[in-house]
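S., here's the first fold you wanted:
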Amino acid sequence: MKILGAKPSIRSSLIVLVLACLIPAALAQAGLAYYSFKAERQQLLNDTLARVRALTGSLDREMIAAEGAVRALGTSPALLSGDYATFYDQATQVQIQQQADNVVLSWPNGQQIINTLRPYGTKLPMSRTPDFEKILQADTAITTNLFVGAVSKQPHFAIQIPVRHDGKPIYTLTIGMFPHRIAAILPTESTLPGQIAGVLDGNGVLVARSTGEDGLVGNKVPAQLLAQMEHRKEGSFPTTTAEGVPAVLLFAHSAASQWVSYMTIPEAYFQQKLWDSLKWVLAISLLLATAALAFAWFVGGVIAQSIASLTAPALALGYGQTVKIGAVYLREADEVAKALAEASSVLRAAQYEAQHDKLTGLANHALFNDMLNQQLLLCERMKMHMAVLFIDLDGFKAVNDTHGHGVGDQLLRAVATRLGTAVRSSDIVARLGGDEFALLLIDAGRADAYRFAQQLIERISAPYLLDDLSICVAASIGIALFPETAATPEGLLLAADEAMYQAKREGKGRSVVAQALTP
């Protein structure tokens, strides 16, 4: 990545990294806040709809109580006897008990006989409610929609029943209630700011409203609102209140009267709730971003300084100079500094690994050749003797075939250990490959080399306990002497190798000195 044609610094890269982490995190937080808001919004709608159902239940109870009262009043003996004065007193008591606004007794043609809004005996008008014809045919009570009473001259509604004798209607009996009776069951305090509760009659006329009812009660709501509520028992939809406020309207139909109870929640309330959720996310994200960027700037400077302090030690290592490490402030940089300081030892370790057998830890073929060359030059200068022993294990292949290579490797390590403990510190032991080993005996003549070889055969041939197994192998050893056998490293190794094969041909488990020399 390049910024404006230049390679980015650590500080700028960290800042980009911080922003790359914070921006998705902030967006995720905003998404979670919005999801939480949506869930809270839906819960509020559900709770409000439950309150609307409760309001509808209260409305139904009012209607059912009034219906029960008018039915009980309709069974009064005073009606059949024509004792209207007594019935007037009974109707007045029912009106008081039910907190109704009036009780009306009418002839089947609509002529009022009694209206508790007027004293008994007062001349009363003809009054036929919108559902008057239906009530004469009905067997159940009918709840009217809002209408203007002939006596009260005010909007009200009524619960009406027919009073029958011998199956024929002889009277209609009505309990009338003004809208304030319904307004009394509406919530007196809104749980949410700007919330409105109300009741509509079956024609969509406003019967009661919790706030701002002046001039609205008795008016029919717009047709589009009625269309939204027409085919659903309950639900919600967006609307605009009579005050012009966007809101969500929740409604439920009454099973007893087919009236509608509703409540509204202003959209501004939801918007405020959403903003309240998001503003904390934005504020916290901005605060975290500021802190994170400042920290990234500081850390970037520390990293840059620590890396820059490693430049000089790296160059010193390349030139083979002593590595001096300055102050570093990060663990990783400190580890790099230590790695530079230990680079020479690592190189030595790599060199050691290149010169030693991985399985046994003995010198390998390359190191043995180097040491042989060096000792050969030393022996020539000092006029010293030297012997090379070439060792090959007898029966090793059978161990591998019978017990597996894992046991074979253990056996090779055990043999190497016995060889290492058998020689002097000045002697050199090597594994040339497979089950072949070589020994370089310093200042050893023919007799010494042959005697040592025989002892070595006995040592190698002793049983090995490996993983509860007792393994036995032998060894064939070829011996080459300097200067008697050969004067070069290659000649000594070749002569020792040939002597070893001669030992195998003679029966294994023995040693042979090169050039057919005998003990």
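And the second, which I think is the more interesting of the pair:
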Amino acid sequence: MAAGRAPGSRRGPVVAALMLAMALAALDSTIIATAIPQIVGDLGGFAVFTWLFSGYLLAVTVTLPVYGKLSDTFGRKPILIAGIALFLIGSLACAAAWNMASLIAFRVLQGLGGGALQGTVQTIAADLYPMKERPKIQAKLSSVWATSSVAGPAAGGLLAAYADWRWIFLVNLPVGAIALWLIIRHFFEDKGRGPAHPAPARRRIDWPGALAVFATGGLLLTALVQGGVAWPWLSAPSLLLFAGTALCAAATVLIERRAAEPVIPGWVWRRRTISAVNVALGALGLLMVAPTVFLPTYAQAVLGLSPTAAGFVLSMMTLSWPVSAAFSSHVYNRIGIRNCALVGIGAAALVLLSFPLLPYPGAAWQPALLMLALGAALGLFQLPLIIGVQSSVGYAERGTTTASVLFCRQVGQSLGAALFGAIANAALNDRLAHAPADIRPGLPDDLDAVSHALERAGALTARATDYLRRAVDTSVEHVYLGAAAAAALALLALLLLAPRRFPVHADARTRQETEDAGAAGD
């Protein structure tokens, strides 16, 4: 940071830039969803439009470890600037797309920038604030995701309906330009707060390791995202992708063991604190599929709510999450980080187990109340773990550590989408197979088709409609039970792997003492 400025005056513009950069990544994952009909109507490509989401997710996920290592090697500022610039170039290209193939390719380009945004923003937030104050900035970043989850779909629908879907990507340009200016003008890394960057001669980029990580993550995510959708799980494409993933993973391990500066160092998994948090947040990604993917289907198909009302039910979780996260420091400062996270994930498991107990068909306030409680529980779980794991390492390892945590969460989410999608369809197919003979002819055969059939008034008899609603209710209940099992996995990971007291690195301890001394002097 710039010399001669008081820490408080330096943080404001930088925090604003971080929130704007996070908004770019957060909005991009929600704003495009409601504009899909207009995009497909203009460009065509209905059979492959899901790659608008899958391609972006794949690019973000596989680049997280690479950007984490690069930020530790070359500093946060150049990586964040490069990420924002790449994201804006991708946004401009998306707005100029001439067919679905070009739009998908440019979405992947956006994702390459998005990976730098997600990991580097979280790392800079940890660099800026000592451990005691870190919940403040993390709560602000969480509020950006909460606001985006509510405002994104509405903004996308309005732009597509009253302007043009290309404006969904063009609005990124002024936001990103402001973030870039604030970062360039106000953010100067204070290398004195951590180990100095390696000397230029030691700044080696592990390109073979980076390519191996790309290949492994790309093959795995493609198999998870497209399996059971574009082709059956036991078909040749799925088996080849999983076999290729295994081979690339083995090659990655061999390459990384021999690399002087590996992209994914072995200590990420050898240190109990980091490995425990990686597994726990991977399980969090897994369980998050239940509310984010299947709750809207439940709200519309079972409760009969409109898409807007269904989004409101889900938004209850995103409203309570940042509030709970902001107050989590009062809890973990009293009982410790691990115990705070255990309380949060234990409460989340109970909430998820409560979902199958909801009455049928029930009222909208009932799942909304559960989502409010789930967000509060997960706020006590996720943020303390991120703060704890970031404080356990020094400056030179923080980017890699943060990226590993986010990478595991993203992979968990992709795995959860595939696993819980299979569970939901299996439960639904079982109910459809046992449907009464008089309503069985003409019934849809998968979750998406059932949802579409229930949206069309008069397409089914009243008896068939009620049977399908109950079938969807049963399939979503199975998903929530699976999510509760994922919460139990996270709880076990913390109990068996995490230390009772999270270690605090000397850099973080010195930083906190300096901040406390400065506050006392003021």
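Why I say that: The chain is about 75% helix and 0% strand. The chain has a mean pLDDT of 82.

Talk tomorrow,
H.
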